[in-house]
Amino acid sequence: MRPRHPRDVLVGYDGSDNARLALQEAIFIAQTSNARMTVVSVVPDVAATINAVWLAGGDPAQLSREMRIEVAATLEEAIEQIPEDVPVTKVLGQGHAGPVLVEQIDRIGCDLVVVGTRGRGAMRALLLGSVTEYLVRHSSVPVVVVPPPERLRDDLA
User: Fold this and answer.
1) Spans of all domains in the chain
2) 100: closest CA among 146, 23, 41?
3) For 8-45+73-156, CATH number?
4) Which among 61, 20, 68 is positioned nearest to 44, based on CA atoms?
5) 146 phi/psi in degrees, rounded to 5
6) What is the DSSP letter of 13?
7) From the centroid of its chain, how far is CA 66?
8) pTM for this structure?
């Protein structure tokens, strides 16, 4: 069976070094496969944080607005890195990143997911990041996991 070329590559982007590497890999795959890209950034659920902010006398609604603005700016940062010859869809999600990304795979019809993973200490070196692990377990399409950059890999030894 010949491998298929992806038609729409989804990448989750949070602005981290690992997400930047995953984005670059997704761009490469999309360009070489003549595929579309879907970039998803997720505003996290902040219910517990909002309670703490409220108890400290802060404004939970303001915190929520600020988080949404920050994540939207991160998404725009990713979009700016994608060459003009690659068609792209951007999605600003809300909730837990893993389930939001899986939902987008099915909703948009992506056929490949590219994500980064982060380096961890020796005790947890065998574990992927929680979002990456969720995707590997729940995605209906192949998941490409991009390893951390060399400067973050030292703690994996």
Assistant:
1) 8-45+73-156
2) 41
3) 3.40.50.620
4) 68
5) -90, 125
6) -
7) 20
8) 0.82
pLDDT at residue 62 in the model? 76
Mean pLDDT confidence for 103-125: 76
Q: Which residue has the higher pLDDT, 2 or 124?
A: 2
- b vs e for 107-131, b when ≥16 Cβ sit within 10 Å of the residue's Cβ? eeebbbbbbbbbbbeeeeeeebbeb
* DSSP characters over 83-142: -TTS-EEEEEEES-HHHHHHHHIIIII--EEEEE-----GGGTTPPPHHHHHHHHH-SS-
pLDDT above 90 for 99 = yes
3-state DSSP call for residue 44? coil
User: How are beta strands 112-116 and 88-94 bridged, if at all?
Assistant: unpaired
Q: Residue range 34-38: average pLDDT?
A: 96
